[in-house]
Amino acid sequence: MRVAIVDTGLCNVDSMWRALEECGATAVVTADPSVLGTVDKIVLPGVGAFPDAMAALAADGLDDAIRDEVTNNEVPLLGVCLGMQLLATHGAEVRDCAGLGLIDASVERLESRSGERVPHVGWNEVHRTGDAALLHNIPDGADFYFVHSFHMRCADPADIAAATPYCGGFTSMVVRDHVVGTQFHPEKSQTYGLALLRNFVEM
Amino acid sequence: MLKVRVIPTLLYRDVTLVKGVGFDARRVVGSPMQAVQVYNLRNVDELCFFDITASPQRRGPDFSLIDELADRCFMPLTVGGGVRTLDDVRDLLAVGADKVAINTAALDDPELVRAASDRFGAQCIVAVIDVRADPQGTVTVWRDNAAHDTGLDPAAWAKELEALGAGEVLVQSADRDGTMSGYDLDTIRRVSDSVSVPVIASGGAGTFEHMHEAFADGRASAVAAASMFHFTEQTPMGAKQYLGAHGHPVRV
Questions:
Q1: B231 has pLDDT over 90
Q2: pLDDT per residue over B177-195, tens digit each?
Q3: Which residues of A are part of the catalytic machinery?
Q4: B251 and B236 in contact (C-beta within 8 Å)?
Q5: Are the C-beta atoms of A100 and A83 separated by less than 8 Å?
C-alpha cells in the first residue's frame, strides 16, 4: 500500500510519515503532482494558515492533481487538521480564500461560547454521528489531540462523520465517499490515532 | 469536554538532558531519546523539549536531533530554544515539531511572532514568558534564560503576545524552577485572566496538589513539570488520576 503525503512546505510531514509507516503503509512525502498518480492513497496533512497552504498547493499544481486523482480515479484522500479544512469550498482564515471544493463546506473561526479558550488545544472527545469505517474498533467518545482555531461547517449534514463538544460543538470528522477529513491529529493521538490511520491504510 | 493537560518538560543542553534548579545548577538526567521513548510508552498528553543553551550561545535549534526525537513521538511535541527566524519555525515543523516555542526572539522582534502566526497558524506558536520576582515581590518578564530583567509586566506582555498571534502562552517561573515548591499561582492567574488563549503553567511543580492549584486557582489549561517527574516516583498518569479525582477533566 503506497500512500503519498502531500508536502506544502508548511507542515509536520515527518510525523505523518512515521505514523503511516507504523501502520504498515509505504509512505512517500512529495510535492510532485505526477507522484500522486502512482499511489493508492493520498494524505493531505496540516498545520499552517489556509491561504498560504492553498497558494503552496496551487504553485506546484498539486491542487488540480489532488482533485483529479480523487474525482476521476477515486483515490482515497485523508485530510488532517488544516488538510481537512482545505477540502472545503472556501476558508476565512487571514482572508477569504477558495479551497479544494471536495466537501461542500466553509471554514470559520471557532467562537467561544462560555469562556472556552481559542485555539482549541488538547485532548477532546470525538463522537461519531454515522458509521465511518475510519472509526472501526475505536470507542465512541475516544479522546483525540486537537490544535486549531478554525472549524469546518458542512452544508450537507450527511458529510459529517463525528462531532466534538467545544465552542458549542463542531464537526471533527467528515466523510464523503472516499474523501475523509479529521480536524484532530491521528498521527499525534497515540493508540486510537494509529488505529484510525490503520483503518485508512486498510480501507 | 476538553481535558486538562499534564506535560513533562525535557531540558536539553549540549548532548545531555539536564534538570535545572533556579535556571542554573543543572543536573544530568540521561539521554533525550530514552526520555522521549519512556514518555511515549506512558501515553503522556504532550511533551515539551527546550534546548536551553541555544539562545545564550547565539545558535539555532538542533534540527537533526529534533528530527530523531520526533520520530519516536506519537504524541504532540512542543520544541523551543534558539528559534529566531521564520525558517527556524518552518524547519522545526518540517522535522516533526507540532508547536514551536518562542521566547527571547519575541522580545527582540515581536513581529516574528506575528509573521510566524500568519504563515503557520496561531495554533502552533507558543510564546514562552520567563518570570522572576524581585525582593519586593514584583514579578517581571526576564530574558536570555531569565538572566536579564526586561521590566515588562507578565500579564501585559502576554496580552501583547496574544495580539501578535501567539496561540498559547507558557508562563515559567525562574524562581521556582526545580524547587518543587509549587507554581507561581498569582502570576499564572494574572496571565490566564489577561488572555483568551490557553495558558501553560510551568516552574515549581512538586506534588499533584500543586497541579490541582494551577488549574483551580491559576486557571491554567495545562501544567508542565520536569523535576517532579524526573526525580520523584510521581508520574504523569498518577497526576491525572489525582486531578480526575479532584474534579478536573482528564484523559486517562
A1: no
A2: 989 999 999 999 999 999 9
A3: 81, 185, 187
A4: no
A5: no
Q: Nearest Cα to B48, choosing from B166, B209, B157, B171?
A: B171
Give the model confidence (pLDDT) of B123-142 as tens digits. Answer: 999 999 999 999 999 999 99
**Residue A119: is the preceding peptide bond cis (ω within 30°)?**
yes
The grid coordinates of residue B2 equal 476538553
Contacts of A124 (CB under 8 A, 6+ apart): A143, A144, A146, A164, A165, A166, A172, A184, B1, B2, B3
Give me the residue spans of the domains in chain B: 5-245
Residue of A8 and B209 predicted with greater confidence: B209
Closest CA to B126 of B34, B221, B42: B221
Which of B3, B44, B68, B74 should one mutate to test binding to chain A, selecting the residue with the greatest count of A CBs within 10 A?
Answer: B74
Indicate if the pLDDT at residue B17 is higher than 70: no
What Cα–Cα distance (Å) separates residue B2 from each residue in A76, B26, B144? 30, 35, 34
Length of chain A: 203
Task: Output the pTM of the full model.
Answer: 0.93
Write the pLDDT tens digit of every residue in B39-73.
888 889 999 999 888 877 888 898 988 888 888 88
Neighbours of B163 (CB within 10 A): 12
Chain B residues with beta carbon closer than 8 angstroms to that of A82: 121
Query: What integer pLDDT is reported at residue B86 of this predicted model?
Result: 95
CATH numbers and ranges of domains, chain A: 2-202 (3.40.50.880)
**Mean pLDDT lowest for which of A54-68, A69-83, B41-55?**
B41-55
Any CB–CB contact under 8 A between A127 and chain B? Answer: no
Looking from the CA of A13 toward its CB, the CA atoms found within 13 Å total 19
Predicted local distance difference test score (pLDDT) of residue B45: 96
In whole angstroms, what is the distance from residue B192 CA to residue B199 CA?
A: 6
Q: List B residues 3-22 in contact with A (Cβ-Cβ < 8 A).
A: 3-5
B251 touches chain A (CB under 8 A): yes
- The CATH code that applies to domain B5-245 is 3.20.20.70
